[in-house]
Amino acid sequence: MRNVRSTGSSLKYIEYFDEKNIIEVTNRMGLEDPEMVHVVHLSPRTVHNNTIVALELRSDTHSRKPGILVIGTLNGMAWGAPNSIIELAEKLLYDANYQTPFFNDYDWYLIPLVNPDALNFTKSLQSFSTINHMVWARNMTARNNTKPSEWYKNVDSDTLEKCFGTNINRNFAYHWQDDVHKTPENCSQYYPGPKPFSAPESQALQRYIHKLGDAINFAIHVEGSFVPKKEYILYPWQYTLRQPSNGRTLQAIGEYAARQARLPDGRLYEVHQNSNDGRVAGSLTDYISGVLGTELVFLVKPYHPKYPNISDTSILETYVKKTITALLSLVRGWRSSTKQNTLSFFGKDVEF
To answer: Which Pfam families does its entry note (predicted)?
Structure first.
Protein backbone atom coordinates (compact mmCIF):
# COMPACT_ATOMS: atom_id res chain seq x y z
CA MET A 1 0.00 0.00 0.00
CA ARG A 2 1.46 3.34 -1.02
CA ASN A 3 2.18 5.88 1.68
CA VAL A 4 1.07 8.97 -0.22
CA ARG A 5 2.47 12.15 1.25
CA SER A 6 4.15 15.38 0.25
CA THR A 7 7.83 14.70 -0.42
CA GLY A 8 8.66 18.40 -0.39
CA SER A 9 11.08 20.22 -2.65
CA SER A 10 14.30 18.65 -1.36
CA LEU A 11 15.91 15.68 -3.07
CA LYS A 12 15.54 12.21 -1.61
CA TYR A 13 18.83 11.05 -3.13
CA ILE A 14 21.88 13.31 -2.87
CA GLU A 15 24.44 11.02 -4.53
CA TYR A 16 24.72 10.48 -8.27
CA PHE A 17 23.04 7.27 -9.36
CA ASP A 18 24.70 4.40 -11.17
CA GLU A 19 23.27 1.10 -12.42
CA LYS A 20 23.56 -0.56 -9.00
CA ASN A 21 21.65 2.23 -7.24
CA ILE A 22 18.93 2.18 -9.89
CA ILE A 23 18.40 -1.56 -9.55
CA GLU A 24 18.17 -1.25 -5.75
CA VAL A 25 15.69 1.63 -5.81
CA THR A 26 13.49 0.29 -8.60
CA ASN A 27 13.36 -3.16 -7.00
CA ARG A 28 12.27 -1.55 -3.73
CA MET A 29 9.52 0.35 -5.53
CA GLY A 30 8.37 -2.84 -7.22
CA LEU A 31 8.23 -4.76 -3.94
CA GLU A 32 6.41 -1.99 -2.08
CA ASP A 33 3.81 -1.33 -4.79
CA PRO A 34 3.58 -4.35 -7.10
CA GLU A 35 0.17 -3.31 -8.43
CA MET A 36 1.46 0.04 -9.64
CA VAL A 37 5.14 -0.56 -10.35
CA HIS A 38 6.60 -2.97 -12.88
CA VAL A 39 10.39 -3.23 -13.23
CA VAL A 40 11.74 -4.41 -16.60
CA HIS A 41 15.36 -5.35 -17.30
CA LEU A 42 16.06 -4.62 -20.95
CA SER A 43 17.96 -6.97 -23.22
CA PRO A 44 20.73 -7.17 -24.28
CA ARG A 45 23.01 -6.10 -21.48
CA THR A 46 25.82 -3.66 -22.16
CA VAL A 47 29.36 -4.67 -23.12
CA HIS A 48 30.35 -4.40 -19.45
CA ASN A 49 27.39 -6.59 -18.48
CA ASN A 50 25.36 -3.77 -16.96
CA THR A 51 21.57 -3.77 -17.05
CA ILE A 52 19.37 -1.06 -18.54
CA VAL A 53 16.30 -0.78 -16.31
CA ALA A 54 12.81 0.44 -17.23
CA LEU A 55 10.33 1.46 -14.55
CA GLU A 56 6.66 1.26 -15.55
CA LEU A 57 4.18 3.16 -13.35
CA ARG A 58 0.42 2.74 -13.66
CA SER A 59 -2.21 4.10 -11.29
CA ASP A 60 -4.80 1.66 -12.68
CA THR A 61 -3.77 -1.66 -14.17
CA HIS A 62 -7.29 -2.34 -15.43
CA SER A 63 -7.34 0.48 -17.97
CA ARG A 64 -4.80 1.85 -20.41
CA LYS A 65 -4.11 5.55 -20.21
CA PRO A 66 -2.03 7.80 -22.47
CA GLY A 67 1.59 6.73 -22.14
CA ILE A 68 4.56 8.99 -21.40
CA LEU A 69 8.05 7.65 -22.15
CA VAL A 70 11.04 9.32 -20.47
CA ILE A 71 14.57 8.21 -21.40
CA GLY A 72 17.78 9.46 -19.79
CA THR A 73 21.54 9.38 -20.21
CA LEU A 74 22.38 8.17 -23.67
CA ASN A 75 25.29 10.53 -23.07
CA GLY A 76 27.42 9.22 -20.22
CA MET A 77 28.40 12.73 -19.14
CA ALA A 78 24.84 13.60 -18.05
CA TRP A 79 25.44 12.19 -14.58
CA GLY A 80 22.37 13.84 -13.06
CA ALA A 81 19.78 12.57 -15.56
CA PRO A 82 19.20 9.21 -13.78
CA ASN A 83 18.59 11.07 -10.52
CA SER A 84 16.06 13.33 -12.23
CA ILE A 85 14.04 10.39 -13.50
CA ILE A 86 14.16 8.44 -10.23
CA GLU A 87 13.19 11.54 -8.24
CA LEU A 88 10.31 12.05 -10.70
CA ALA A 89 9.18 8.46 -10.09
CA GLU A 90 9.26 9.04 -6.33
CA LYS A 91 7.06 12.11 -6.68
CA LEU A 92 4.60 10.43 -9.02
CA LEU A 93 4.19 7.49 -6.66
CA TYR A 94 4.42 9.04 -3.22
CA ASP A 95 3.76 12.80 -3.38
CA ALA A 96 0.10 13.83 -3.13
CA ASN A 97 0.90 17.03 -5.02
CA TYR A 98 1.73 14.99 -8.13
CA GLN A 99 -1.18 12.52 -8.10
CA THR A 100 -3.49 14.71 -10.17
CA PRO A 101 -3.00 15.24 -12.98
CA PHE A 102 0.38 13.63 -13.50
CA PHE A 103 0.17 10.15 -12.01
CA ASN A 104 -3.55 9.46 -12.15
CA ASP A 105 -4.03 10.48 -15.78
CA TYR A 106 -1.08 8.73 -17.46
CA ASP A 107 0.92 5.54 -17.67
CA TRP A 108 4.63 6.30 -17.24
CA TYR A 109 7.53 4.39 -18.79
CA LEU A 110 10.84 5.58 -17.33
CA ILE A 111 14.35 4.54 -18.38
CA PRO A 112 16.74 6.44 -16.09
CA LEU A 113 20.10 5.25 -17.45
CA VAL A 114 20.71 3.96 -20.98
CA ASN A 115 24.52 4.24 -20.98
CA PRO A 116 25.73 2.89 -17.61
CA ASP A 117 29.15 1.85 -18.95
CA ALA A 118 30.04 5.38 -20.04
CA LEU A 119 28.63 6.90 -16.86
CA ASN A 120 30.89 4.65 -14.78
CA PHE A 121 33.80 5.34 -17.12
CA THR A 122 33.56 9.14 -17.00
CA LYS A 123 32.99 9.17 -13.23
CA SER A 124 36.13 7.08 -12.75
CA LEU A 125 38.18 9.78 -14.51
CA GLN A 126 36.84 12.78 -12.63
CA SER A 127 39.92 13.54 -10.52
CA PHE A 128 42.30 13.56 -13.51
CA SER A 129 43.39 16.61 -15.48
CA THR A 130 41.59 17.35 -18.75
CA ILE A 131 43.06 17.17 -22.24
CA ASN A 132 41.52 17.45 -25.70
CA HIS A 133 39.29 14.44 -26.37
CA MET A 134 40.85 13.68 -29.77
CA VAL A 135 44.37 13.76 -28.32
CA TRP A 136 43.21 11.50 -25.51
CA ALA A 137 41.63 9.03 -27.95
CA ARG A 138 44.58 8.84 -30.36
CA ASN A 139 47.55 9.08 -28.01
CA MET A 140 47.75 6.18 -25.58
CA THR A 141 50.65 7.76 -23.69
CA ALA A 142 48.71 11.00 -23.14
CA ARG A 143 46.01 9.09 -21.26
CA ASN A 144 48.11 8.63 -18.14
CA ASN A 145 46.27 10.44 -15.33
CA THR A 146 44.20 12.47 -17.79
CA LYS A 147 40.60 12.48 -18.98
CA PRO A 148 39.06 13.46 -22.33
CA SER A 149 37.48 16.91 -22.44
CA GLU A 150 34.22 15.24 -23.44
CA TRP A 151 32.87 11.73 -23.82
CA TYR A 152 29.58 11.31 -25.68
CA LYS A 153 29.93 7.62 -26.61
CA ASN A 154 29.44 4.26 -24.94
CA VAL A 155 32.30 1.97 -23.89
CA ASP A 156 32.19 -0.89 -26.36
CA SER A 157 35.62 -2.42 -25.76
CA ASP A 158 38.53 -2.33 -23.35
CA THR A 159 39.29 1.26 -22.36
CA LEU A 160 42.98 0.56 -22.92
CA GLU A 161 42.34 0.22 -26.65
CA LYS A 162 42.69 3.11 -29.06
CA CYS A 163 39.57 4.88 -30.34
CA PHE A 164 36.77 2.88 -28.74
CA GLY A 165 33.09 3.70 -28.34
CA THR A 166 29.97 4.46 -30.39
CA ASN A 167 27.75 7.50 -30.04
CA ILE A 168 24.44 5.83 -29.16
CA ASN A 169 22.44 8.88 -30.20
CA ARG A 170 23.71 8.44 -33.77
CA ASN A 171 23.18 4.66 -33.88
CA PHE A 172 19.44 4.42 -34.59
CA ALA A 173 18.17 3.21 -37.95
CA TYR A 174 16.35 6.30 -39.14
CA HIS A 175 18.14 8.21 -41.91
CA TRP A 176 21.36 6.85 -40.41
CA GLN A 177 24.36 8.74 -41.82
CA ASP A 178 22.18 11.04 -43.94
CA ASP A 179 23.87 14.04 -42.34
CA VAL A 180 27.40 13.27 -43.56
CA HIS A 181 29.21 12.42 -46.78
CA LYS A 182 31.82 10.38 -44.94
CA THR A 183 31.54 8.36 -41.73
CA PRO A 184 33.30 10.14 -38.84
CA GLU A 185 36.44 8.31 -37.76
CA ASN A 186 36.06 6.03 -34.78
CA CYS A 187 38.15 8.36 -32.60
CA SER A 188 35.47 11.03 -33.03
CA GLN A 189 32.88 11.58 -30.31
CA TYR A 190 30.30 11.52 -33.11
CA TYR A 191 31.21 8.09 -34.47
CA PRO A 192 27.82 6.43 -35.26
CA GLY A 193 29.08 2.86 -35.22
CA PRO A 194 29.75 0.56 -38.19
CA LYS A 195 26.01 0.10 -38.80
CA PRO A 196 22.67 1.03 -37.21
CA PHE A 197 21.95 -0.72 -33.93
CA SER A 198 25.51 -1.97 -33.60
CA ALA A 199 25.47 -0.79 -29.96
CA PRO A 200 23.77 -3.04 -27.38
CA GLU A 201 22.23 0.04 -25.76
CA SER A 202 20.40 1.10 -28.93
CA GLN A 203 19.35 -2.51 -29.52
CA ALA A 204 17.84 -2.69 -26.03
CA LEU A 205 15.95 0.56 -26.52
CA GLN A 206 14.67 -0.51 -29.92
CA ARG A 207 13.26 -3.77 -28.56
CA TYR A 208 11.61 -2.11 -25.61
CA ILE A 209 9.97 0.83 -27.35
CA HIS A 210 8.67 -1.38 -30.16
CA LYS A 211 7.15 -3.65 -27.53
CA LEU A 212 5.36 -0.60 -26.13
CA GLY A 213 4.30 0.50 -29.61
CA ASP A 214 1.26 2.76 -29.68
CA ALA A 215 1.04 2.74 -25.88
CA ILE A 216 3.38 5.74 -26.10
CA ASN A 217 1.71 9.08 -26.83
CA PHE A 218 4.41 11.43 -25.56
CA ALA A 219 8.18 10.88 -25.40
CA ILE A 220 10.92 12.90 -23.74
CA HIS A 221 14.67 12.30 -24.01
CA VAL A 222 16.57 13.85 -21.08
CA GLU A 223 20.20 14.91 -21.47
CA GLY A 224 22.38 17.83 -20.48
CA SER A 225 23.58 20.97 -22.17
CA PHE A 226 27.24 21.40 -21.36
CA VAL A 227 27.31 25.10 -22.26
CA PRO A 228 26.37 27.55 -19.48
CA LYS A 229 23.22 29.57 -20.14
CA LYS A 230 22.37 27.44 -23.18
CA GLU A 231 19.42 25.28 -22.19
CA TYR A 232 17.01 23.75 -24.65
CA ILE A 233 13.65 22.17 -25.33
CA LEU A 234 14.00 20.62 -28.78
CA TYR A 235 11.86 18.53 -31.12
CA PRO A 236 12.33 16.56 -34.39
CA TRP A 237 13.60 16.54 -36.93
CA GLN A 238 17.32 16.39 -36.25
CA TYR A 239 18.45 14.79 -39.50
CA THR A 240 16.92 17.47 -41.77
CA LEU A 241 15.90 21.11 -41.75
CA ARG A 242 12.49 20.09 -43.07
CA GLN A 243 9.84 20.80 -40.47
CA PRO A 244 7.65 17.99 -39.12
CA SER A 245 4.00 18.13 -40.12
CA ASN A 246 3.03 18.99 -36.53
CA GLY A 247 5.86 21.47 -36.05
CA ARG A 248 3.56 24.29 -34.92
CA THR A 249 2.05 22.09 -32.22
CA LEU A 250 5.48 20.99 -30.99
CA GLN A 251 6.71 24.59 -30.93
CA ALA A 252 3.61 25.74 -29.03
CA ILE A 253 3.91 22.98 -26.42
CA GLY A 254 7.62 23.70 -26.03
CA GLU A 255 7.04 27.44 -25.60
CA TYR A 256 4.31 26.79 -23.05
CA ALA A 257 6.70 24.55 -21.11
CA ALA A 258 9.49 27.13 -21.32
CA ARG A 259 7.24 29.77 -19.76
CA GLN A 260 6.14 27.38 -17.01
CA ALA A 261 9.71 26.21 -16.34
CA ARG A 262 11.37 29.61 -16.33
CA LEU A 263 14.97 29.18 -15.20
CA PRO A 264 16.17 30.48 -11.80
CA ASP A 265 17.85 33.53 -13.34
CA GLY A 266 14.72 34.46 -15.31
CA ARG A 267 15.81 33.05 -18.65
CA LEU A 268 13.60 30.82 -20.77
CA TYR A 269 14.61 27.56 -22.38
CA GLU A 270 15.38 27.98 -26.06
CA VAL A 271 12.68 26.14 -28.02
CA HIS A 272 13.15 25.08 -31.63
CA GLN A 273 13.58 22.22 -34.05
CA ASN A 274 16.65 20.15 -33.19
CA SER A 275 18.32 20.52 -36.58
CA ASN A 276 18.51 24.31 -36.15
CA ASP A 277 21.69 23.67 -34.16
CA GLY A 278 23.10 21.31 -36.78
CA ARG A 279 21.92 18.23 -38.61
CA VAL A 280 22.44 14.89 -36.86
CA ALA A 281 21.15 11.61 -38.28
CA GLY A 282 20.36 8.43 -36.39
CA SER A 283 19.09 10.12 -33.23
CA LEU A 284 16.71 8.60 -30.70
CA THR A 285 14.06 11.32 -30.98
CA ASP A 286 13.94 11.07 -34.77
CA TYR A 287 13.63 7.29 -34.52
CA ILE A 288 10.76 7.45 -32.03
CA SER A 289 8.97 10.01 -34.17
CA GLY A 290 9.74 8.61 -37.61
CA VAL A 291 9.65 4.85 -37.02
CA LEU A 292 7.54 4.34 -33.91
CA GLY A 293 5.17 7.06 -35.11
CA THR A 294 4.92 8.97 -31.83
CA GLU A 295 3.79 12.48 -32.73
CA LEU A 296 4.90 14.35 -29.62
CA VAL A 297 8.63 13.88 -28.99
CA PHE A 298 11.01 16.25 -27.21
CA LEU A 299 14.64 16.49 -26.11
CA VAL A 300 15.19 18.40 -22.85
CA LYS A 301 18.67 19.76 -22.10
CA PRO A 302 19.11 21.74 -18.87
CA TYR A 303 22.65 22.90 -18.15
CA HIS A 304 24.87 20.16 -16.72
CA PRO A 305 28.58 20.81 -16.04
CA LYS A 306 31.09 18.34 -17.40
CA TYR A 307 32.65 16.18 -14.69
CA PRO A 308 30.77 17.99 -11.87
CA ASN A 309 32.10 18.11 -8.33
CA ILE A 310 30.21 15.20 -6.78
CA SER A 311 30.64 16.60 -3.27
CA ASP A 312 28.70 19.75 -4.21
CA THR A 313 25.11 18.56 -3.87
CA SER A 314 23.77 21.93 -5.05
CA ILE A 315 24.90 21.10 -8.60
CA LEU A 316 22.87 17.89 -8.63
CA GLU A 317 19.90 19.51 -6.91
CA THR A 318 19.77 22.38 -9.41
CA TYR A 319 19.91 20.07 -12.42
CA VAL A 320 17.31 17.64 -11.04
CA LYS A 321 14.83 20.35 -10.11
CA LYS A 322 15.17 22.07 -13.48
CA THR A 323 14.75 18.78 -15.31
CA ILE A 324 11.64 17.67 -13.41
CA THR A 325 10.06 21.10 -13.81
CA ALA A 326 10.71 21.06 -17.56
CA LEU A 327 9.36 17.52 -17.95
CA LEU A 328 6.13 18.23 -16.11
CA SER A 329 5.75 21.57 -17.86
CA LEU A 330 5.88 19.75 -21.19
CA VAL A 331 3.12 17.44 -19.98
CA ARG A 332 1.11 20.49 -18.91
CA GLY A 333 1.76 22.01 -22.33
CA TRP A 334 0.38 18.87 -23.92
CA ARG A 335 -2.67 19.01 -21.66
CA SER A 336 -3.15 22.69 -22.47
CA SER A 337 -3.02 22.00 -26.21
CA THR A 338 -5.83 19.46 -25.83
CA LYS A 339 -7.73 21.44 -23.15
CA GLN A 340 -7.17 18.60 -20.68
CA ASN A 341 -6.17 20.93 -17.87
CA THR A 342 -8.97 23.47 -18.22
CA LEU A 343 -12.36 23.83 -16.62
CA SER A 344 -15.02 26.18 -17.86
CA PHE A 345 -16.55 28.59 -15.35
CA PHE A 346 -19.31 30.84 -16.65
CA GLY A 347 -17.98 30.55 -20.17
CA LYS A 348 -14.33 31.20 -19.23
CA ASP A 349 -11.62 28.52 -19.45
CA VAL A 350 -9.48 28.26 -16.32
CA GLU A 351 -6.32 26.13 -16.20
CA PHE A 352 -5.57 23.94 -13.20
So the answer is: Peptidase_M14
